[in-house]
Structure formats: structure tokens, C-alpha cells
Amino acid sequence: MTKAGSDLPATVAPPPTLSPSGERVVAVTGADRLAFLDDTTTQALREAAPGTATAALVLDANGLPLLQLEVLVRAEDVLLVVPDALAVDAVMSLLAGRTFLADARFAPRDDTVLLVHGDGAGAAVAAAGLDVADGALAVHGEVVVVDARHGARRLLCPTAAVAAVAAALRAAGAADGDAGALDAWRVAAGVPVWGREVTAPHLPEELGLLPTHVHLAKGCYPGQEAVARMWMLGRPRRRLARVRVDGDLGPGWTTGTGRDEVRLTAVAPGAGTGLAFVPGDAAPGARFAGEDGAIEVLDLPGDGTPPGHDPAVRRRRDRPRGGDPAGGRPGSGT
């Protein structure tokens, strides 16, 4: 088939893809559930309203990630979506085991988590009768549907409902995808994966997670000092970038050393793109070559202003090198 008036083949957009995500779910109940999660994670949750869908991290004292969470607030509970079964164990150890006198109770759930991603994902989910507003969550019977960012939708399904939900999504135009299709979407969207990119020694800002997972104006939590120090006074030594891959390169490929080291963490099957950690001062267009290939920076995921940042507060990294024309000493905070 060709476009009218053209000899070029018409471009048909691929259908949205339906993939089991492998994620697991933990429910948090009790009168202090939001206050406890506010105290222990990077996200401002104390006043979160039912229907809120956001994300958070649990950090160690040095600001390194111990847990990555999707946080879904309902009237009766909070649902934590975590990457895998090992992360459930970490939730029960790091959070459930340290509530002390707080009224916050954690219980793993037996949900299957489906992700609908790619062009038209939101429309397909809505056509299946499972619509959700951008940035929110919705409950359809026993199924919880949430905006998963980057145009995707996440569906939390009880085991008995998975087959019917999947059939409705296929009827609405979604096609089944495997782990490769899910990874290709994650690379295209610049989504870092737990245990691959989201791991020590990488700080939240290096991962591009500040705009989605961290609130800069909330109260104290483990690792807050490291996050604030980097945001106000430092410069990330490295950043996660979406890159073009030239050559037969795979995850683990490196070039350069020290601060100039580049490490490829993921390659989208057949797409010629990937994710890589690059020097912190690298900009789109920067190219890094080795003997067997090269990568070029396309963009830096999460390169935006995090919630809670006061634009009137001048960071040291934003000041001109060699002094502050406004009269403050470099790095003085004045």
C-alpha cells in the first residue's frame, strides 16, 4: 500500500504491546501508612490524596538506592508496586520490619502486573473499558489501572482476572509482547531498570529519577543529605543517557576510564539504541568510541526540574565559574 500521490510505502504504526512486567505488589494499611512512607522514602506522601499515583525510592545514608517503588494511594490502603520478588523481601525487611510504634502494616499481594506500552497504549486500555486519567489511578472492579508514565498503562490484576483482562486488551488492539519488547520500550522511553541501572553506586540524579521519584522540599528521610548536597552543591560524575549504538555492542561494553568511563547497560533489540552511563557533563550529540564501535548521546532522561525545588535558590553549579556577579562567594550559599 502507498500513500496518495507517493511511491513510498505507507507507514503503519505498530500496535501497542501487552507485556507481563514481572512486578509484584505489597499493600500497606493502617492509620499511619502515609506518614510512615513519607518518613522513609524520597517522596512527599503525607498529604497524598486517594487516586494519587507517584513513585519513590528508599535510600541508604549515602543516597544509594535500596528500593524502587511505584506508590498508588487508595482510600483504604497504599499499593506499592516493586520490581520483583526479591524487592518484596526488601520491603518487608527495610520497611515492614521497622515500623516501631507506627500503625502501618505491610502485606504482599498475589497480583499479576501487566504493562501496556507503545503508541496508542492509553487508547487501547480505554477501549477495553479500563481507562485512567494521566498521572492518576483508577479502579475497575478488582483491577487497578495506573498511568505508568511515557504513555504506558500499568494494570494490577488478581490471578482470576488476568485472562479476561488480557483478552479485552487484545480485542482493543494490543498485541502480546515478550521480555525483548518490554526492554525495547524501556530503552526508547529512557526508563532505568532495577538491578541493571538502578543500583549502587548510582545516585538518583545520575539515574534521571529526581523529577519522578524525589521531592526536594519534604522532610527528613534516609539519604536526604546526599541528595540535597548533590543537587545544590555538586555535579553528577556520570548520567544515564539514551544513546545511538554503532557497531555490534552489547550490555557491559565500556570505553574510557575514571570520570571519562562510558558503560552501556542495555541495547534495544533491532533498534540501534540503548542506555548507557556517560560522563556527567556529556550533552546530546557527544560521541564515545572504542575499538569495536561507538555510542552517541541522544538525550538525558529525567533532565528536568524536580518537584519541591525553589527556583529562587541559586545552586552552586548554576553560578558562573570564577565568581558570583551578584556578590556572593562561590559556593557560599549567599
Folded structure, characterized:
The chain has helices at 33-40, 85-94, 121-127, 162-171, 179-189, 210-213, 224-233, and strands spanning 17-20, 24-29, 53-59, 65-73, 78-82, 105-109, 112-117, 137-140, 143-147, 153-157, 175-176, 238-246, 254-255, 262-267, 273-279, 287-290, 293-299. With 334 residues, it is an alpha+beta fold. A 6-stranded mixed sheet has the order 8-9-10-7-1-11, sandwiched between helices. The termini are far apart. The relative contact order is 0.14. The model is unreliable at 1-6 and 325-334 (pLDDT under 50).
CATH fold annotation of one domain: Gyrase A, domain 2
CATH first level of one domain: Alpha Beta
Total count of strands: 17
With helices defined by DSSP (H or I, 4 residues minimum), what is the helix count? Answer: 7
Give the H and E element order.
Answer: EEHEEEHEEHEEEHEHHHEEEEEE
| Relevant CATH superfamily of one domain | Probable tRNA modification gtpase trme, domain 1
Cα distance spanning the termini: 65 Å
SS-derived structural category = alpha+beta
- Spatial arrangement of strands, main beta sheet: 8-9-10-7-1-11
Short structural summary:
This protein is an alpha+beta fold and 334 residues long. Helices cover 18% and strands 28% of the residues. It has a domain at 17-189: 2-Layer Sandwich (Gyrase A, domain 2).
Which features would summarize this protein structure in a list?
single chain, 334 residues, alpha+beta, Gyrase A, domain 2, 6-stranded mixed beta sheet, 6-stranded antiparallel beta sheet, 7 helices, disordered N terminus, disordered C terminus
